Amino acid sequence: MTLLEGSIGVEDLVLLEPLEEESMLKNLQLRYENKEIYTYIGNVLVSVNPYQQLPIYGPEFIAKYQECTFYELKPHIYALANVAYQSLKFRDRDQCILITGESGAGKTEASKLVMSYVAAVCGKGEEVNSVKEQLLQSNPVLEAFGNAKTIRNNNSSRFGKYMDIEFDFKGSPLGGVITNYLLEKSRVVKQLKGERNFHIFYQLLAGADAQLLTALKLERDTGGYAYLNREVSRVDGMDDASNFKSVQSAMTVIGFSEEEIRWVLEVTALVLKLGNVKLSDEFQANGIPASGISDTRGVREIGELMGLDSKELERALCSRTMATAKEKVVTALNIVQAQYARDALAKNIYSRLFNWIVNRINESIKVGTGEKKKVMGVLDIYGFEILEDNSFEQFVINYCNEKLQQVFIELTLKEEQEEYTREGIPWKKVDYFDNGIICNLIEHNQRGILAMLDEECLRPGVVSDSTFLAKLNQLFSKHSHYESKVTQNAQRQYDHTMGLSCFRICHYAGKVTYNVNSFIDKNNDLLFRDLSQAMWKAKHPLLRSLFPEGDPKQASLKRPPTAGAQFKSSVAILMKNLYSKNPNYIRCIKPNEHQQRGQFSRELVATQARYLGLLENVRVRRAGYAFRQGYRPFLERYRLLSRSTWPRWNGGDREGVEKILGELSACTSEEVTFGKTKIFIKSPKTLFYLEEQRRLRIQQLATLIQKIYRGWRCRTHYQQMRKSQILISSWFRGTMQKKRYGKMKASALLIQAFVRGWKARKDYRKYFRSGAALTLSSFIYKSLAQKFLLGLKNNLPSTSILDKKWPAAPYKCFTTANQELQRLYHQWKCKKFRDQLSPKQVEVLREKLCASELFKGKKAAYPPSVPVPFRGDYIGLRGNPKLQKLTGREEGPVLMAETVRKVNRSNGKTSSRILLLTKGHVILTDSKKTQAKTVIGLESVAGVSVTSFQDGLFCLHLSEISSVGSKGDFLLVSEHVVELLTKMYRAVLDTTQRQLPITVAEQFSVKFKESNVTVKVTQGSGGNGNGKLSCKKKGSHGLEVTV
């Protein structure tokens, strides 16, 4: 399907006319209501969250988009992922995919779809599959520890994630690196109404078994934890217990050891336990407010779980040590300060645990430094946010989005300019909004807002959010993108929405008002040194490693970097990374606030479109030429518009395109420009004009085709009718003649019948008396036979094959017939019995039949073996994998496995061996070592000798040409000799298509190495032949065996 034909609305907003916000929203809504959730802006993908599973994913669609170019099929996230992967693989260009949008817009699902597509189309192999599985399994682990239910989204990512997936030169994944940004750690201690804490807390309490909960000193009820929102403990469509098992499985796949998983869960439990530490008001002797632990049980359990001194932890929570160069001063904390310290500790522990998990995943999926690799980055980060109350978190998030918008504008214009240069088209400067002035306002090293915030945090004296705001008002009073109550008053402006503790920045996506309350605290992000040292003293390996600054040897009075400085540094590294790669953009949009399928809120989508700068994106794309296409596909699509190029064109592609456009009046030189390999069209109206002309031309050609087709169909119909009329006439005449001939033939036969009847009656009257006796005797015999058969029918015996009763013949003349009928009836009963048997039972009877043919009347051991079923396995082969390996997979099933005794060739003594019979070999192995000693191919078995007594002695005669046969024959003793030789006989017949000679005799010759030995078997005094077997050497050529 092409870009315009058969599409719903406009598939590429670059071609939207008129280019207004209203028309863009109307187009997005039209496509969304028809379940077309993807739309292009050039090579940018706009994705509207459908809040339902659509049948547009899976292996079938992956294969379809893998084989097509970007615009060849409908807009789809697979198309963008395919372009990125193909460019990485074949053009050797590092890629990055930037996924942006607000919470609930589907960013996480989009990143999963991109990774699943890349995993499906890249190489195969055991090692590659292992790497792919590790990369994919990192998602559920990070979601459990970094996602939470919010008002807007049941599975909202509360951190930014950038993953570099690294590939080899063949395009197969080698590993990756994950970078996380700004985890919302304040959620650990406080959630808004209707929201939950991070998923892992609920998954742990719902999915852990009773033994694990007891070990972690937890209870299953979520209502017993102060850090968990008691109003919302479950989420519709989310099974916390099942997800907990999935997280444990994913951590195992990634490479976490059982011990590491236990450590992570113990630290997670520690965070929950900290929230239940109850603090109370106390006063020191001098009347100064202090604090204490009202219930020491929680602190004691934390100490037992982490290997902490509970007194040490209580002291760290309720007091603070101020260190100077000369002395240390211990200050008691009031209850508000102690609660702040407790919550700060919980937030720091969880934040550092999350960073440790990310680093541990990176250790498992990292690539060796020596390998040359290509990189595809996937960025899943918060979109632009404007809330009712915007604080420090929204400030840094919007700063990051300003930087991403700057990257988008610069790289998009750079890409446009490079394409124009390649095609030999002059580049004209494009006017666009440069948000560099906003980025500079925030990030300038000396005069930026972040620099001022850090300076205020580090300044000695009284520091507060108000002093920080006053410094901003003084510094940016005349900045065009900065506003506050002070600057508005100076300009004699009145705005009741601007608070006294607020300032406003004019971002590219709109004006955002920030409340400076808690800016200083959130930027400082301080943790008292007493708490760090207490955590470092824990015996728990993971918790101790999370607080290296607690080590007294590494104690430093240097202030740690602020949260703003760390985030600014991370964004700078991210921008440098993005500039080094070819970008691909996915803009995610949330259609409604209620997560309902089919609902499209124009106001909400319009707000997000402004945040994401969609119209700005379209204007940049249309700054030069709105549409461009290679000469070959353009000629193939529009060649029917010119009589010179339709229906066949033998010239060059560019000449054909020039011929087509030269004959169309609307395609002027101002609207169309010819590049080296592409044609560029400036206005979408020109493209729509071409599409309309093509549609009209197709209607004309369709009418012509219909006219020709109708004429051909009428002619064909007439010719068929004419042929049918001729055929019907000929058949009718033939049928009439056949009927006439039939009547004539019937009349002749009737006359013949009358004549023959007359002659017969005449002869009958003449010869009746002479033939009367013969006729009467024949009639009487037939009557007797009929009576005999009817009587036999009513007196048939039962259908049991063991019932041999049969009625006697009433007359001697029926004796032979009666015996034949008895035989036939018995055969019928046997056949009916056989038809009821299963294939396994038939096989057992065939083995029993073969044993009967071989040994019935020949060997005394045969009659006792008849009622005993053949088992085949007498050593428990299924429970012995070592013996199973001896046979090999290609050998098929083992036909016989039992313990036999091998008669020694030199002294006549016997030793125990395990005999395995397969379809191709006889394997003799030591019963203790379970190693194959002798493997005899069935083709090497020349014959078998066995005695007629009830013993189990038999001899395997081997052909001399075989390697095993050169050592001599084998004299063995088996307790199931009839079954063994029967199965061996059938196996040799199936394998070599020859019958195995089995000789029953009391004396036979056995070849031992170079000489032949005559074995003579005699029956002992017991007389039955089934007693203990003894062998005695009689000279060098004789062996006497007594059974």
Walk me through the structure:
The radius of gyration is 47 Å and the shape is extended. 47% of the residues lie in helices and 16% in strands. It has 31 helices and 31 strands. The strands form eight sheets. It has an eight-stranded mixed beta sheet with strand order 23-22-21-20-26-25-24-27, with helices on one face. It has a seven-stranded mixed beta sheet with strand order 1-2-16-3-12-6-7, sandwiched between helices. Among the domains are: 13-86 and 94-257 and 353-387 and 586-627, 3-Layer(aba) Sandwich (Kinesin); 628-715, Alpha-Beta Plaits (2-Layer Sandwich); 796-836; 846-1002, PH-domain like (Roll). Helix 9 packs antiparallel against helix 12. The relative contact order is 0.07.
What is the secondary structure topology, with strand pairs?
Layout: H1 21-33, E1 38-41, E2 44-48, H2 59-66, H3 77-90, E3 95-100, H4 107-121, H5 126-146, E4 147-148, E5 156-157, E6 160-167, E7 173-181, H6 199-207, H7 210-216, H8 240-254, H9 258-275, E8 279-283, E9 289-293, H10 296-306, H11 310-318, E10 319-323, E11 328-332, H12 335-365, E12 374-380, H13 392-423, H14 436-443, H15 449-458, H16 465-475, E13 482-484, H17 485-490, E14 502-507, E15 510-515, H18 519-524, H19 529-536, H20 541-545, H21 563-579, E16 582-589, H22 602-612, H23 614-621, E17 627-630, H24 631-638, H25 653-662, E18 672-674, E19 678-681, H26 684-794, H27 815-835, H28 839-855, H29 862-865, H30 881-887, E20 896-903, E21 910-917, E22 921-926, E23 932-937, E24 941-946, E25 953-958, E26 970-973, H31 977-992, E27 998-1000, E28 1003-1008, E29 1011-1018, E30 1030-1033, E31 1038-1042
Binding site for ATP: 101-108
Function: Involved in directing the movement of organelles along actin filaments.
Region (Disordered): 1022-1043
